[in-house]
Specification:
Blueprint: E1 3-6, H1 16-31, E2 35-40, H2 50-62, E3 72-73, H3 78-90, E4 94-97, H4 101-108, E5 118-119, E6 122-123, E7 144-147, H5 149-154, E8 162-164, E9 167-169, H6 174-177, E10 182-184, H7 192-202, E11 207-211, H8 217-227, E12 234-238, H9 258-263, H10 268-275
Parallel strand pairs: 1-2, 2-3, 11-12
Antiparallel strand pairs: 4-7, 5-6, 7-10, 8-9
Bound molecules: glutamic acid.
């Protein structure tokens, strides 16, 4: 069984890095006689646009990829995310946080803290709002909720372990290296970490193929799978496509948008060559 996916956010044009990721996943699925899914990560409605989504479909079809219809859209799944948050809340893994970004920066750089530590989501949360014991009562609505990582790790009955390409990874010291990540955001209900874990599980994804920029985030996804009793897929974090200065391509990097190459007369084969496939 081999089910993989490409999950872009429609917040800008797809660039060569996306083309690489999508074609690699599609090629692997083909080679394994499996399935390639397309999913639209449109949780952040303030940044997503229907015209970018239309361009995603168009660019990927032009590249020669195909996928089953209809595609899953995160914006249709808010109640699913809410239900999972409630499961975590009821088990005492979450707490409400009212810190602003500035509060976090200030607390993390207080002299007694030493140099601020960084995790997959930036500065590691210094724990200002973390309660001494798990909160009781109903889950607050429209609130920022963080995972109490130390509590979550303490409740594991066997070591966290997953496969990243050919390596067996056993994440260590998550409270210190990752910290209390945000799982519910006020503006969009859930955070990326929670939604991606639920989407992959609900779509039966067996192999997650995505860029090395997400290598560190995977340990968060694996602990969430454990807490929510979901299977852990195999992970493969591929190299990133960079510009000539070594910088990773970004959505605003229109010069490397697939659409720009298409308009200039490139063929899908040219794109494959450019990304080394
Ligand atoms: N929407 C996410 C991104 O574009 C997907 C990441 C993932 O594949 O998990 O970075």
């Amino acid at each position: 069984m081999f089910i993989t996916r490409f999950a872009p956010s429609p917040t800008g044009p797809l660039h060569l890095g996306h083309a690489f990721s999508a074609m690699l996943a599609h090629d692997r699925a083909r080679a394994a006689g499996g399935t390639f899914l397309l999913r639209i990560d449109d949780l952040d409605q303030s940044r997503c646009r229907p015209e970018w989504e239309a361009q995603i479909f168009d660019d990927l079809a032009w590249l020669g990829l195909n996928w089953p219809q209809p595609v899953m859209r995160q914006s249709d799944r808010l109640s699913r995310y809410h239900e999972a948050l409630k499961v975590l809340w009821d088990q005492g893994f979450l707490y409400q946080c009212s810190c602003t970004r500035a509060d976090i920066r200030a607390a993390a750089s207080a002299p007694q803290e030493g140099a601020p530590l960084f995790g997959p989501d930036g500065v590691i949360y210094p724990g200002t709002c973390r309660p001494a014991s798990p909160p009781t009562g109903p889950m607050p609505g429209d609130a920022v909720l963080r995972l109490d990582m130390a509590h979550a790790c303490a409740m594991l009955t066997s070591p966290l372990v997953y496969k990243d390409q050919d390596d067996i990874v056993t994440p260590q010291h998550l409270p210190r290296t990752v910290g209390d990540v945000v799982l519910a955001r006020r503006d969009m209900g859930a955070s990326y970490h929670l939604s991606v874990v639920l989407d992959d599980a609900d779509q039966g994804v067996t192999h997650v193929i995505r860029g090395q920029d997400l290598t560190e985030a995977t340990q968060i996804h694996v602990i969430l799978q454990r807490l929510l009793d979901l299977p852990t897929p195999f992970y493969y974090h591929h190299r990133l496509i960079r510009d000539e200065t070594g910088k990773r391509l970004a959505k605003r990097d229109d010069a490397r948008a697939i659409a720009t190459y298409r308009n200039a007369g490139a063929t899908p084969r040219d794109i494959r060559n450019m990304v080394g496939l």
